[in-house]
Amino acid sequence: MEQVLEVKGLKTYFYTEDGVAKSVDGVDFSLAKGKTLGIVGESGCGKSVTSLSVMRLVAEPVGRIVAGEIRFGGDNLLDKTEKEMRGIRGNRISMIFQEPMTSLNPVFTVGNQIGEVLKLHQGMTTAEATKRSIEMLRLVGIPLPEKECMNIRIN
Ligand SMILES: Nc1ncnc2c1ncn2[C@@H]1O[C@H](COP(=O)(O)OP(=O)(O)OP(=O)(O)O)[C@@H](O)[C@H]1O
Ligand SMILES: [Mg+2]
User: Fold this and answer.
1) 121 and 142 co-located in one domain
2) Ligand 1 within 6 A of 21 CB?
3) C-alpha pair distances (Å), 118 with each of 14, 49, 121, 128, 140
């Protein structure tokens, strides 16, 4: 079966004043095409740091991926430039962050924040991003997305 994502020997460490925190220390897993993979474990065991590593969003220089491979579509994501990663993030791999109060801005509508991703990662215009955001909100069953999620007046 084709593997979409293969993580091998991943090690992500944090170099703090109090020493090295080996948050992810040799993790292997793979995800087959069309399958869903859940990673479970107690709080602090490294689920978020593993996911952030796949996205290449570990906060450097304190945090560093020190070993391993993250194979995605035949490439090792650890060899990608930041520019290349920006093309992959939000298009081919996305992350839904924990803690909506810190990852979403309550001042903006959710439609606006979905649209921002489309503008940044897919180069859409504001009008295109608005249209697509409404479509996606409708797909997940939000009634009247223009009104509820975009602050667009409808009659
Ligand atoms: N920036 C950082 N500096 C130092 N240590 C960190 C940093 N970020 C995460 N850690 C440590 O890495 C370990 C793994 O954290 P992580 O957030 O991945 O846990 P988790 O499995 O996602 O937990 P939860 O279920 O609570 O979300 C923890 O011990 C955490 O304290
Ligand atoms: Mg977490």
Assistant:
1) yes
2) yes
3) 32, 25, 5, 9, 17
User: If you measure from the C-alpha of residue 124 to the centroid of ligand 2, how many angstroms do you get, rounded to a whole number?
Assistant: 31
Counting from 1 in the atom list of ligand 1, the atom nearest the Cα of 46 is 18
Nearest to 20 by CA among 79, 61, 54, 70: 61
Per-residue pLDDT tens digits for 75-116: 999 999 999 998 899 889 999 888 888 888 888 898 999 999
pLDDT bin (cut points 50, 70, 90) of residue 138 is: very high
Q: How many domains does the chain have?
A: 2
What are the φ/ψ torsions at residue 54 (nearest 5 degrees)?
-60, -40
Please tell me the predicted confidence (pLDDT) of residue 98: 82
43 and 106 housed in the same domain: no
Q: Are 68 and 78 in contact (CB under 8 A)?
A: yes
